Amino acid sequence: MTEQIAELKQRLVVGHKQDGRCCYDPQAKRELIEASMQPGVSVAKLALAHGINANLLRTWIGKQQRQSLAANSSRGSAATPSPFVPVVPIKAQRSPITAPGLAVRLPNGVRLEWSVLPGDQLAHVLRLLSALPCSESIPG
Length: 140
Hints:
Order of helices and strands: HEEHHHEEEH
Number of strands: 5
Shape: rod-shaped
Strand content: 5-15%
């Protein structure tokens, strides 16, 4: 492990700017960020072992996370799913006199349909759903 740290530490700084700040190798930065994301790893200890400031490593980690979220959201997946679930009534196609239907598509893509529930049972399902807590809208 110490050999890996020494090797990465040696590759990390590739030069210095005119004002004295270091220039870092992008691949070595990525490896250091990935190492810091492992369970049980202390970011401060890792930064100290590689001869950089812990705040700088935390900045790199935050920047990497923001870029990952932006890349995921540009591919169509929501970075932060909405706490609201759209409820869409289903029109019956069998006969004009049918029980009301309910279809719900959750943010994770799951689709729930209730099309053969009597009105009182559908009302009961809606009451139960409305009573569920929404983690993003309730503080604490």
